[in-house]
User: What shape does this take?
Amino acid sequence: MSALHATLTYPAEIEEAIRQISEFLRGDYPLGKHTLALLLLQEDDEIWQMVRQQETSATLEQIRSVLNTVKTQMDSPIGWAIEHQRQQVGQQISQQVLQAQFGERAHSVAEWLGWLCMNPWTGFPILALVLYFGLYQFVGVFGAGTVVGWIEEDLFGGWINPAVESFVRGLVPWKAIQELLVGEYGVWTLGVTYAVALILPIVTFFFLVFAVLEDSGYLPRLAMLIDRAFKGLGLNGRAVIPIVLGFGCDTMATMVTRVLETRRERVLATFLLTLTIPCSAQLGVVLALLARYPTGLLIWMGVLVGVFLTAGWIAARVIPGNPMPFYMELPPIRLPSLSNVLLKTMARLHWYFLEVFPLFLLASVLIWVGQLTGLFDWALRAIAPITGLLGLPDSAGVAFLFGFFRRDYGAAGLYDLQQAGLLTGNQVLIVAVVLTLFVPCVAQFLVTLKERGWKAALAMFVISLGVAIWVGWMLKLALSALGVVL
Amino acid sequence: MRCGMCGHELTEAGIEKACRGCSAFGGCRLVKCLHCGYEQPQLPRWLKWLVEMAKRQQERKV
Assistant: This one.
């Protein structure tokens, strides 16, 4: 048997920094100086705390200076460079000691299934099946169509809202307060009804599917599957974490972009989230509305995927830098446990409802104030040229106004317009595309501002608005030119 | 509680540590996995109480 050849040597800048830091350290530590220096370079909180207790401020200053020098010398983050080198050596060792054949990889049904989810030839069809049955059929057709029909139209529209309305109108003599509570955009008729009867059932079904995917171990395999596709967008498979979470809530997902290694990746992922990823409620409503126009749904998906890839490709070339390699430890594929799925769904619903409910009520109050002062009508008139350009009725401006506040609120407004029979099939498709690409909601904009700075946040806002209107306009022209009538 | 992405077990200490580095200071009602950075909502108190009750019920049966 030949001797094993594998030497772990870090890049020259890191090796030099390790040597310098090791010489600076004077304290008595349970770890070797080389290991300590390595951990200090990776900015490990606990090790820094330990060193702070034993070294003088002058020494700490010297270590920090070395750390800053290495940061400026390296193209990639220090932690990543260290992990990358370890991975390389790990691969060298495994190549020398393991003899694995392709067929031997899958030992059990679970491992075999896991491998199928990651192989591009089988992984993408599996992804299509997950999207079709999980999102389209379960969330869109059944959840947002059938169940919302029962709750919003039959229960709230037929029973609860008329009762509350007559009770309030009988109890409160002032017209303005009646409007605030049960008017067209009232706290009850709009805020509570949207939150409880429309959005809550949709996100319940979405979170159920999400919990099943999480508990089965599918998500990390999805990350591995689309790692290669994401490389062209300047990202890697790790960006699946914020992108997938964006389908739940884009605000939360924008915060999660911190898990990405470089600022470039964080900016790219935030941009794609802002522009192309619909949140759960928005997705559910759009799926429900377009479920009756399957061609429209395909066009909507095609436009979004096209914008996602084009915007990502252009952005990756405008913002300089290289994509980072991606690797991830894979948990086993497992049968989801019912209790886990229910607990996760309940926890998410609790979280979502607390986020959404106060904002929906606040939006109703703001609209009421806007109606009293005439601001609401003024804003609708200001949007009218844009809705006209897109071939939409003026009333569609309401959905855009709501969309400025929250994405799901805008989607709920769109749902109402469709139910009232105010939109044709082509108009539903155009408004669905524009609302999906539309500006981030207030909460997402504020988080982007905090995380990426005002320049990036403002640029993303303006680009989203411009792209949404331009793509909607192009779609309208293309539908007319091709004679497509949904 | 297990991370929905990488499957690592989330401990109270780990959750606290992950929150320390965040500007939301845990006010978001989410827990972050220290291992992969994935965030998920934490179990609300009433749900924890229900889980405890169910566990006790099962223990009594055994």
User: Anything to note?
Assistant: The longest helix of chain B spans residues 45-61. The radius of gyration of chain B is 14 Å. The mean pLDDT of chain B is 79.
